[in-house]
Amino acid sequence: MIGYVTLGTNDLARAAVFYDALAGELETPRMMDFDGFIAWGKPGGAAGIGLTKPFDGNPATVGNGVMIALEARDKEQVDRLHALALANGGTCEGPPGPRGDSFYAGYFRDPDGNKLNAFIMT
């Protein structure tokens, strides 16, 4: 079971605005907030997301083939999460819509280029 996922960022303040917007829609608060690290999640809840500048001091880079999937309540929330991502510095990687018979998702990248999606199994 995954407890949390940490993504690198080169601008923690900018990335925090992006993830605060998504976490607010998902009703998931910040659970840790330090000078160089922020994490969103609920103790005992689903996996959380953390953001940090890389410990080794090198620039954060995007993992090719890596994607974080955010489970939504319904199609409307998928649409809202995608719109929030774009409104907060994200870029579109595929608009919300059906993918096959039982999957609805919208794909986007955060301001650092990390790929995410919001989805629901229909």
UniProtKB/TrEMBL annotation:
Domain VOC: 1-121
SUPFAM superfamilies xrefs: Glyoxalase/Bleomycin resistance protein/Dihydroxybiphenyl dioxygenase (SSF54593)
Gene3D superfamilies noted in UniProt: 2,3-Dihydroxybiphenyl 1,2-Dioxygenase, domain 1 (3.10.180.10)
One Pfam family named in its UniProt record: Glyoxalase
Superkingdom per UniProt: Bacteria
Cited PANTHER family: BLL2941 PROTEIN (PTHR35006:SF1), GLYOXALASE FAMILY PROTEIN (AFU_ORTHOLOGUE AFUA_5G14830) (PTHR35006)
Protein name listed in UniProt: VOC family protein
High-level lineage: Bacteria, Pseudomonadati, Pseudomonadota, Alphaproteobacteria, Sphingomonadales
